[in-house]
Structure formats: C-alpha cells, structure tokens
Write a structure and sequence with these properties.
Elements: E1 4-5, E2 20-28, E3 31-36, E4 40-45, E5 59-65, E6 68-73, H1 75-78, E7 91-97, E8 100-106, E9 108-116, E10 121-122, E11 132-138, E12 141-146, H2 148-157, H3 175-194, E13 204-211, E14 214-219, E15 223-228, E16 244-250, E17 253-258, H4 260-265, E18 276-280, E19 287-291, E20 293-300, E21 306-311, E22 314-322, E23 325-330, H5 332-336, E24 342-343
Parallel strand pairs: 3-12, 6-8, 14-23, 17-19
Antiparallel strand pairs: 1-24, 2-3, 2-9, 4-7, 5-6, 7-8, 10-11, 11-12, 13-14, 13-20, 15-18, 16-17, 18-19, 21-22, 22-23
C-alpha cells in the first residue's frame, strides 16, 4: 500500500473558525497596498532589468529568477495610478500565483502584518477586473489588498502595443543609478549561485513562536494561516505517532496537528487545550504545528543560519542566535519530506 500522510477523513460537527492572514504591506506611489504573504517568494532591492525589445506598457523589464525569465510589472499602470519614476530605493516583490511567477515594482516595503480576517471589509464597488480584493485598516490608513490572481490574468492577456509610455521609462537612467543597479544584479547572481540557502532573500521574514520554553521560527512564506485552537475541536486519532496531537477541521480540510517538541526533541508537549495552530503552506500535505503563543516577526540573513540537527541527510531544524537568545528554525520543506510523518 502506498504511504499516506498522517491524516484521516472523519465526519463531525463543524467548528467555529478563527483565522488570520499574513500580509506584506507595501507603498505604491502615495497609497498603501497589501500582498498575501503566502504568494510572496522573495523581496529584492531594485536591480538592473533587461528590455530585449519594446515591451507592453505595464512591463518595466525582465528579470531572471530561479532559472526562468519573469515579467517585472509596473503595477501603477494596471491600477491606473499616475505614472511616477522609480529610484534605486524601490523594491521588487517576486510573486507566485498557481504556477506563474512574476514581480511587481513597489516604492517601499513597510511591514509584514498579521491581519484578523474578521476585521477585513469587502470592496464597496464592482469593476470588470477587480484588482482590489478587499480593504482593511492598517495603522489608521486604508490598505487595499491586491487580487493577485486578477492581476496575473490581466498581465497574461494584455500584450498592449499602444503608444503610451512603457514602464521601463520610469526606471532611472543616470549613470550612477545604472551602475548601482548593475552591481546589485551581479551580487544577486553570485549569491544565488553559491549560497546553499539560495531560496532565501537577503533578509527573510520569519514568524517566531513559543512551545514551552523553546522559541521556534518558520519562514513567513511557509505559513498558510493561523487558527486559534480554542475555537476548534481537536479529534484524537488512535494508532498515530505520539507527536500527532490530533486532527482539526479547517475549511473542510482535516489538519494533522504536530507537537514540535515531541517531533524534534522527543519531549511531550503539555496539551492545555489552548494556543495557536500554524498551518503550513503545502498543497500536498495538511499539516499544522501547535504554538503556545505567537511572538515577533524577525528578519534573518541566510549566513546567520546554521544546521543543528542532521539525520538521514535532512536539515529539518536550524538555529539562529540573536542577543544571546536561541531561535530554532523549522525547515518546512525538509520536515514534510521526512518519513516520520507517514504511516503505512
């Protein structure tokens, strides 16, 4: 029989759902926008872009990312924002929607924010393309949440050979700026070709959380959502590994909840019936880890991370030290490939 991930379909009462989303908050011209963090692959300083020919007006240039050439979109033209030039302090946000990867130019990356979905308001109007998905208040500012699927569909379906100014015209052309952008591109190529953690950006955003006395981190991109345990119903399943606390039903999916202290350290977590389930971002597996409490967002450079536990050629757990405090970083991809999570 083929191996199956530790999860069992079971009928039962529907639960009351509590959910938060993680958003990357950016500024575009004078306005503030939010991008669903699970779609953000990487955030880069503005680098040199290529323009092999006249591109559609909404494309600022092309960039080679992870072995493929992607569009760098001038989002201002799509959102009908007055054109304004970018500068060397602008940022490129790499985005994945289903199997498509593209990038958008933004003026600044302001924050990474956990937003309570119950507080988000629908858009009070209707348009043909619906580039804005919803609205919520960010520090007393109206923050528009971008509909990445609609933007991606529009970019793919609009070759746009009109005579309007190309997004590339908004890129700085002075010699000093061009030299800086070119140097950044070379540095990026060197970093991604030599760094064993090349999938990580210059500084990646991590969510830290407590389990007992230990403090763990998970990369923001590896998190699908947060759910309050006390708002769910835990189902204990017999004949499963001891590190599986049980199953919870979230949006019709049964999520296996892992006790990371037991999983990594063979120490049983004192289950209190409260805490936060961090659901991991995986299309194939339905897995979450239980945290006592969510702590801070922290930024970590790849060269600050070291492996602390290698078993059977797996780096499931890594370490980061800041101000004398130890953070244990969970490598989600390695964890989900471990046979420990499978039953026969």
């Amino acid at each position: 029989m083929e191996n199956q991930i530790t999860q069992i379909k079971q009928t039962g009462d529907q639960i009351t759902e509590y959910c938060e989303n993680i958003y990357t908050i950016v500024s575009i011209a004078e306005d503030i926008y939010a991008i669903d963090a699970k779609n953000v692959l990487e955030i880069l300083k503005f680098v040199e872009l290529s323009t092999p020919e006249r591109l559609p007006s909404h494309i600022a240039g092309l960039f080679e990312y992870d072995g493929r050439i992607i569009n760098v979109v001038d989002i201002k033209s799509i959102l009908n924002i007055e054109p304004s030039p970018y500068d060397i302090n602008s940022m490129i946000v790499i985005i994945k929607v289903e199997e498509d990867i593209f990038a958008v130019m933004v003026n600044k990356v302001l924050d990474v924010k956990r937003a309570d979905m119950k507080d988000i308001q629908p858009v009070p109007y209707h348009t043909k393309h619906s580039f804005i998905q919803c609205i919520y208040d960010y520090k007393d500012f109206q923050c528009n949440v971008l509909n990445l699927q609609s933007i991606n569909d529009w970019v793919k379906s609009h070759p746009d050979d009109s005579d309007v100014n190309n997004g590339f015209a908004l890129i700085p052309t002075d010699s000093e700026s061009l030299e800086i952008l070119h140097r950044r591109k070379i540095e990026y190529i060197e970093k991604t070709s030599k760094n064993p953690y090349a999938i990580m950006s210059d500084k990646d955003e991590f969510i830290s959380f407590f389990v007992g006395e230990n403090k763990y981190c998970i990369k923001m991109n590896d998190i699908r959502g947060f759910y309050k345990l006390q708002e769910t119903k835990m189902i204990k399943v017999p004949c499963t590994p001891s590190f599986i606390l049980g199953l919870v039903n979230i949006k019709g999916d049964f999520i296996s909840v892992v006790d990371v202290k037991n999983y990594f350290h063979s120490q049983k977590f004192p289950y209190s019936g409260s805490g936060t389930i961090i659901v991991l971002n995986s299309d194939e597996f339905k897995i979450g880890v239980l945290a006592d409490a969510i702590s801070d967002n922290i930024q970590i450079k790849p060269d600050e991370i070291v492996s602390v536990k290698r078993q059977e050629n797996k780096n499931e757990l890594m370490q980061y030290v800041k101000d004398g405090e130890i953070y244990l970083i969970i490598n989600v991809a390695e964890m989900l490939s471990n046979d420990k999570l499978f039953i026969k």
